[in-house]
Structure formats: structure tokens, C-alpha cells
Amino acid sequence: MLDNKGYTVGSGYELVRQKFQAVKWNQCVWNGWCIPRHQFIGWLIARESLQLKMKLFQLGIAADDDDCLLCSNASETHKHLFQECTYGRRVFSEINNLCNMSIPMSNHMQWAGNGHVSRLQKGVLLCIVMAAYYHIWMQRNKARVEGCILKPDLLSNQIRREVQARINARLLPVTDRRDLDWLRSVKLYL
Predict the structure, then answer these.
(1) Minimal CA–CA distance to 127: which of 78, 154, 83, 162?
(2) Which one of 55, 103, 145, 185 has the lowest number of neighbouring Cβ atoms within 10 Å?
(3) Domain boundaries defined on the chain
(4) What is the Cα–Cα distance from 190 to 177, expressed in whole angstroms?
């Protein structure tokens, strides 16, 4: 590729590299507060790439139906499993109660990534949402393999403990006093 300056490596690279569409969820999934295994599941959810029963049923791989393994009330889609499923909604409701928060029942990633909160608060909120997604997905798999799942209150306690451990591991000694007070108010910092 020649321009008025001649060939450059940068202009050649721009010619051959693929152009990808920017995604809105990138910063929500790939942030330093989330646990890597949670980030991976969050990435698959954001891309709607999990192998859910509905996809497998449509491909002829799943057995008889495409019903949700956690509630059996609807087809198992990404939107249903992580926003509409009664089990998932109860898990988020329990997290709200435990952490004295108000996480909405839909658009969790968008909610956690928006708002006028500090960088630490945004990271913690995203950590909670990604942990909830991960554990709901694991319970779905447990229901598929073992035929049983944890009660939502037990699962939400497990999520809270995991998020608390992540916060304690990542928290810097020079953290702003307002952020520490907020962490104490949502019962995520000891």
C-alpha cells in the first residue's frame, strides 16, 4: 500500500487485518475484578454462545424438549436462563437481600456497567453479576447431569462468599474511605 509517504508497515497491516465490530459488553466482562472462570462464562453469555437446550434441540441433539432445566417453565434460551427464569430471579433476589442492593431482574451487565459510581463499585457490581451468571450456569449443568440443584438462598450465600474473597484479595490498602464504607454497607467487606 503506497501513500504520499510511501509504503509503511502500519499501512500494510491495516490493509490485511480484519475489522471487528466494537461490542458494548467488552468492559463489563473483561475487567480486573471478575474471577477469570466467571469472565469466560460471561463472555459466552454476552455472545449467546452457550450450548443451551434450545440450540441442541433445534440441532436434533437434545432429547425430548427444550424446557429450562432449572424451572421447566419455558424454552431454555440465554434471555430466559439469565433474566426470566424463576430460579435465576430468586438467586438475584437473594443476593439483593444479602447485600442490601437493588440489582434489576434484567440487563444485569448493562446495569452494573452504567451509573455514577466509583471505579471500585462498578468492578464489584460486575463481579457479583458475573459470579451469579457463572453459578446459575453451573447449577443448570448440575441439574442436567445430577438432576438436582442448590436452593437459591444457599447459592446466593456461596456467590457472596466468593465475591467477598475476591474483594479482599484485590482491595488495596489505600482504598478510598467512601468505597470502604460502601463495601461495608453492602456487606461485602469485613
Answers:
(1) 162
(2) 145
(3) 23-185
(4) 14
